[in-house]
Amino acid sequence: MLGTHLKLGLMSLCAATVAMGAAAQDVADTIYTGGPVLTMDDSAPRAEALAVREGRIAAVGSLEAVMALRGESTRVIDLEGAALLPGFVDAHGHVAAIGLQAMAANLLPAPDGRGNSIAELQDILRDFIDAQPERVERFGAVIGFGYDDSQLSELAHPTRHDLDAVAADIPVYIVHQSGHLAVANTAALALAGITAESEEMPGGVIRREADGKTPDGVLEETPHFVALGRDPRRA
Length: 235
Fold this sequence. Notes:
By secondary structure, the protein is α/β, with parallel strands linked by helices. Helix content is 33%, strand content 24%.
């Protein structure tokens, strides 16, 4: 009888040990709460808390359900009202364009701007120079953003000559609404090292004047990005 009791006692102890081990495995390393958890799941787009264990999401849901995974070693992080989002891998981002647009003259056509003709683009750039000389001096150039040849009355791109009429002594560079091409004045072309002798760049086009050699100022794709990357302050 004693042997039977001992056997049953050992079995109970083993079962308790297994249960404790399973419970330990369920304890979260970290719990996030105190702010909306955005799940990107249409059926339950928001949750109150999220638990992480060994670098993986262990639970997401109500505060009560997630806090059930809290143990003595669990770190609880208060989001203080901030939103918690999944990590994103952005293979095609335009973050830099936000900064570019913030420092540039608004050349967008109506209703977002008044850039509906080449003459209006010139006026906008002149007004920009007059209103923000410190910005022009700081960057050593005049930058414009958002013109669209398809919405200009001329249905054509401006040229370097059009931009030279705005300012010939400093680089003037206006970026198309698409972000994939731009127009440079003569000073900006010189800064970029783009001349009549420049060869075409793979993946892009340097538009030329009637002689077939002299750049007319319009740079598509590769030469545009090369020119955009030049810092006039280091010329």
